[in-house]
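re: that chain from earlier
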Amino acid sequence: MKKSLSILISLCGSFLLGACGSGSGNPPPKGPTIVTTSLPDGTIGSSYSETIQATGGVAPFTWSVTSGALPHGLALPGSTGNSVTISGTPDRVQASVAFTIQVADANGQSGKQPFTVNIQSSPTIAVIQSGAVQGVVDGNFLRFRGIPFAAPPLGNLRWKPPVAPASWDGIRSAANFGNRCPQTDFAGGVQGDEDCLTLNVYTTNPPASSKQPVMVFFHGGGNVLGSAQDQPWDLAPPLAGHGVIVVTAQYRLGILGDLAIQELTTEGNGSSGNYCLRDMIAALQWVHDNIAQFNGDPTRVMMFGQSAGALNVQALLASPKVQGQGLITSAGMESSVLPAGLLGTSVADAYAFYAGFVPAVGCSAPQDVLACLRALPVNTIMQRQFLQFPSFMGYNLDPDILPTDPFDKLKLGSPVPLLIGSNRDEAADLEDPSVALTPSDYATAIHTQFDPLLPGTGTQTGDKIISLYPAAPVPFDTNPRYTHIDVETDYSITRPTRDLARAVAAVVGPQKQPVWRYLFTHQYETDPHLTIRRAFHTAELYFVAGLVPGNTRSVYYDGTQYTPNAAEGTLSNEIMDYWARFAATGDPNGGGAVQWLPYDAGENILLLDDTIANLPGGYRNTQCDFLSTLPWQ
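^ sequence. v structure.
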């Protein structure tokens, strides 16, 4: 009995083992195994295609990612074969991206393999907060153009503070400039588009090995014209080859950038107007948040501007949204200063200036004035602006952006070191020096313009100016025409530049910041059309952006094609170095250049010409002393 039970157990055991696939039965099919054990790294913006191979198993197969995630921009397509290809274009720089790939066969058997991939950077691609942008190699430079720093101020965003731009997937092209902001030409024609809040970034190719200081430029044009792509910024600026990254930014112009009315003030909780300044602050904030992705140093940022752009810089220096916010470390003002007392005392003082605009465009009757204004075609707005506000438009006091007069605020101290200056012959762009002016006609022009500024004094004002700027018998300048240009230049630009430089330099205590004042006196040397205009308004800007000897480029308002000579190339390099060092340290000196003495009680000015030299004791102080007593016209 025991023997029979033993045999039975043995037989049953053999049967059970055979039933489980062991012993003398057939072995189970073997599952798939992934034989690709590693994947190469990729580069952002470059096509990536790598195949993962498996062996064994029974078709059809199913592939999947079981843990982690593929690098952004890559995908694992469907495959029923024993291989699969990971493909796509990475659009983010990512380090050590870990994921596991699994393959399963028809029998439910599976195999897994972990991978780690790096997505490396590319000099032409930067990943900013909104997404990746791809720039262009332009000789010795990398340029990124048309990058949105704020959402398009369209529809309900018209006459509102800028908001962050929408993010995007993939890689956005930054090869071309964005739109100019809406503006009218001198005949009233409208150009530009409200979708215009973009900026441009220029750096070297290849990029520098360390983070570079940044120079953010705001263009001129009376705050009604211009763009970040106008000359000399229409080409990659050689300034970017002097150890800095250059940014040029757009902002809303004209009535789209400055309208202040009661309805907007109510909507804005006591603040309206100054949308142009708000745009510039948004651009500075963008630089602070994103410029490191272009190898820029957000702790060394110089904002600077020319003409109306200089006035904008002055206003921004006085704004609580800039002061103490860590957005800038230095500032430059070229060829314009806003005198004190022009903005009134509150936002309501601006209403009278814009009175008539709302009814003129048909929006005074609707219950919702702002909805009506925001529904208007932009051409309607711009054509009305051309008729009602043909020249410079600016900002107003308001509690949010500009609570204090900019000149008065800076008299208490600039928040950062200041580089400031002007050109000797600024007004030469407004009158033709080749057209003769007689001493008699000169005197008539002076009396006509200046006698009304001080009512009740008769001809005393004009007589005083003529005595300070005589046309004969001993002329102040080479002829009455240039003498008239001297008067207009000093009244509108030289004297307010001096007054602001003096005020900031006179500050004592912890608010004191150094001031560096220049006077650009260079005459363009290879074209008579420009030579006769001497140091005209905007003349210095081409030297700041960079003139390359032998390279012809468009200069001046009429698009004169100008080829600088070797001496002008040297001067341009010296000026670029001064500006770049100032951006880096707040002091323009170094590199063996002529020592630029700070502007203080000694009133030193650096003369910028073929020979750079210091001019101590000020410039035309006697003339400017009297002009400073006159009201602003």
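Confidence is low (pLDDT under 50) at residues 1-24.
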